[in-house]
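re: that chain from earlier
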Amino acid sequence: MNRSSKVRLFVGAMFLVGVFAAYTYQATPPPVLTIEKVYDDLYMIVGDGGNVAVYITSEGVILVDDKYDQDHAQIMARIRSVTNQPVKYILSTHYHADHSGGNTQFANETEIISTRNAHDGIVKHLQSNAPNNMVPARVTFTDECSIFLGGKEVRSKFYGRAHTNGDAFVYFPAHRLLHSGDNFSSNPAATPLIDYPGGGSVVEWTKTLDNVMNSLDFDEVMPGHGAMSNKVGMKAYRDRVEVLRSKAQALVRAGKSQEDLAKLMETDYKWAPGSMFQKWAVPGMMTELK
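^ sequence. v structure.
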C-alpha cells in the first residue's frame, strides 16, 4: 500500500470514528418535571430547580419563576396539559439560575418582572456558578408591584433581605396563598442558604419572615423548594433559622475561627465542605455575627 492510500485510509477511519462518536453521544436529559394541582386555576410545576407557580386567567397565564434554561420545553408542555392560554407574565422571586435561568427562553415570549436587585444580580453575574447567558427582567420594582389579568390579581413584594437582597414574595389574594421563593423551604432538614455575595443576611432573614407573617393575610405557602406548606410551616422554618444563627453567633463571638464555624455547620447542619453553603455563607456569617 502506497503512502497516499495509507493517508486516505487513516482519514477515512478517523471520519468513521467521529461519526460513530457523534451518533452514540447523548447529552444527559434534564430531570422530568411534574405538575400538581393546587386550585382549579393554580398549579405547581416541580423538579429540576425551584417550584414554578402557574396561575391561569381568561387572558393568559402568570408564572412565578421559570427554573433552568433547559426546562423551558417541559414547562411549556406541563402548562399545555392544563391550559392553552399564552404565558403573559413571569414574576421572578430572585436571580439564581434554578429560578430565573429559564428567562433566556421566555424573554422573547413574555414579560418578566423582578426586583431591581434581582435584575442587577443577573447583570453583575453575582452567582459564580450560573450560566453566562442569563437574561434579566426588563421590568423591575423596588418595593411592590401588582399584575391584573383576566379579572385576577397577583402581587409581588420585597419585604427585606433574606436569601439575597432582592427576594420577592408573590401573593395570590384570591387564594390567600404565598410563593416564598427560597426564603422558605418545606423540606424538614432544610437550612438557609445565605447568599452573602448576593446581599443575603442570616440576621435579617428572621426579621423578613416576621414582617411577612405579621403583615400579610395568607394561609398556604408554595415554597421555593419542597411540597406545599402553610403559615405554621413557615413559622417553624423561621425558628430553625433563628437557632442556627444563635449557634453560629455564639461561636463567632467566642473568638473561634472561620474553620471552627465551618466545622460546626458541617457537623450540626450537614453543610458539606466546599458546598455553596460553606462558600457563600460561612465567610459572611463570620463578618455579620461579630
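Confidence is low (pLDDT under 50) at residues 2-26.
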